[in-house]
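Title: Prediction job returns without error message
Component: structure pipeline
Severity: low
Priority: P3
Assignee: unassigned

Description:
Job completed but the reporter wants confirmation the result is attached to the right record. Sequence as submitted:
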Amino acid sequence: MQNALERRVYTPQLSPASSAAVRRLAWAMNKPMTKAVEVLIRLIPEMVDPSKVCLACQDRTICKTCPFIQPLTAEEKAALLAF
């Protein structure tokens, strides 16, 4: 297993339109863009079929805590959407 220093780090580049959308969401939330992206990432597992994610997954090290397996509680979802 690779240690944290050996893992590849991928920083995605956003299109101008996506960047503008995240910026506006961040303004609405009164948070930095990085925090707005975190909210979006936390909500994505609610919108996709977890079995498809599991089948394609290439990192089995966090299965027990994977957000696609452990859905948000109603309270967590409400807290993320409360802005």
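Comment from assignee: result matches the submitted record. The CA atoms of residues 2 and 27 lie 38 Å apart.
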